[in-house]
Amino acid sequence: MIRRTATAYLFLAPALLIMAFCGVLPIAFVFFYSVHDVFAGNSFIFVGVTWFEQLLTSREFWGALARSLGFSALVLAIEIPLGIYIALRLPARGLVSSVLVVLLAIPLLAPLIVVGYLWKVLTLTETGLLTAAAALVGIDLDMNDPVVVWIILLLMDAWHWTSLVVLLCFAGLRAIPDAYYQAARIDGASGWAVFRHIQLPKLRLVLLIAILLRLMDSFVIYTEAYIVTRGGPGVSTTFLSHELVQTATIQFDLGEGGAMSVIYFLIVLAVSWAFFRLIVPARSRAERSALA
Question: In DSSP terms, which residues pair with 37 in a beta bridge?
């Protein structure tokens, strides 16, 4: 048994080394920068938690964090219900179902920078197709209006990522045994009763994974939003990721940028751990239910 365990770790060693090199070492350097002040010539002066104290009293930091959290909350409020609805309306089997699944997967294949420039072109003042379509129905698509810009960003994110929720939910619905639906038909259950008592409970694990993925992706959004809005108008779409890049690479405040990165990392880690604590029991209950 001990020999088998040693052999297993031996085979895992290359992967663990790669993970350490690509993950642990960069994080260690970020932590190092977060407690130092950096000067030209790679001169480091230890300052302790000074950068963290400065950030936690900074209105710009809290404003960017609030905008990031608000964007993530709106994304989840739109994409999760919409994804469930579309998945429920898709044909369960057949050629049409396969074609629709392939079409839904197309936006997921688009690189982030392509999505950003696509929506940038769509919202150009004079030649944008979305601007022209809005003008036909009497809507002025003014990209200097913070409300309009937020709506555009939410539409862009929904177009790009709702398909992920749809595909996850569709797979979860396909995994529900037909016996549950047969029993519901015998009992004369309504469509709402079937959804509430059969489909939604069976989708709990899938929905937790979908919420986690969309929450993390939307919370760290950078490329698409920056291309479309450049953080404006004003700072209305300057998210925490934009604030971090501005601080670390443009202002070259590596110490403050390191501290911001640590806080960013801890938030993502805490949320991921919380969802992990929810997903593991849900998976255990799903397995017990399947065995029963």
Answer: 45
